[in-house]
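Hi all, long-time lurker, first post. I run a small reading group and we've been trying to get comfortable going from sequence to structure in the token notation. Rather than ask abstract questions, I figured I'd post a concrete chain and ask someone more experienced to write out its structure so we can walk through it together at our next meeting. Sequence below, copied exactly:
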Amino acid sequence: MPAKVKNAIDQTQQSYLEINLAAPGLAAQSQKYMKSSQPLSAQISASDYKIVDSVVNAKLKVNLKQLENIKPMLIVASVFQASFTCKVMSFESEMIKQTKASNKSIEGLSTIEEQYSFLDKIFDAKDMATYLKANNDIEMNNIFKTIYNAYLVEDISTIDKLMLDFSTTNPEGYRQLLPVRNHLWADRMPNIMKDKSTFFGIGCGHLLGKEGVISLLRTKGYTVTPVH
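-- Answer (accepted) --
Happy to help. Here is the structure in token form:
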């Protein structure tokens, strides 16, 4: 985590993440919202189920039957995470550690319920088999390397382009993933930072574009500049 991020946390009075990952009982609440309204076998065809089962078995070493009632997007995310060739670390965990070390409060821009409610809107179960077949290990690792390298040099334009590529294949999924949530957060931020200087930790995909958080805050009259 860059020194300037640590400094920003130290120099502000509170931290807000997308959701409050430091909240007591988070795991229990998350489990409740991870469940799908109907089993996966009722949402996709038998042939697609077989394809997804094969990938899940190979990657997660479990049968798809064991994950029947989990939201499809969470299953796909777990498969992709299993494809990573390096150790996965949580940026949010580091932010939480830093904030707690300064005895400051941590909150969330969205509730856990709201955040999980977007999963079904972003990803359709019927696309699972096609998505997993198209995004094999080589393809996924190439995308991850591109994002990782762009992230390290703060090239958010490249990341924005990748997100826009997603918008052409799934316009509604993109709208729910970014613009809809960006508007929610940009509308909540003024009230949050009115009385206390605030560190906001959100995914960099939310920053750019006409409906990105930077543009939305500028529209509200705020001056938004990079932290150096």
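A couple of things your group might point at:
The longest strand covers residues 14-17.
The radius of gyration is 19 Å.
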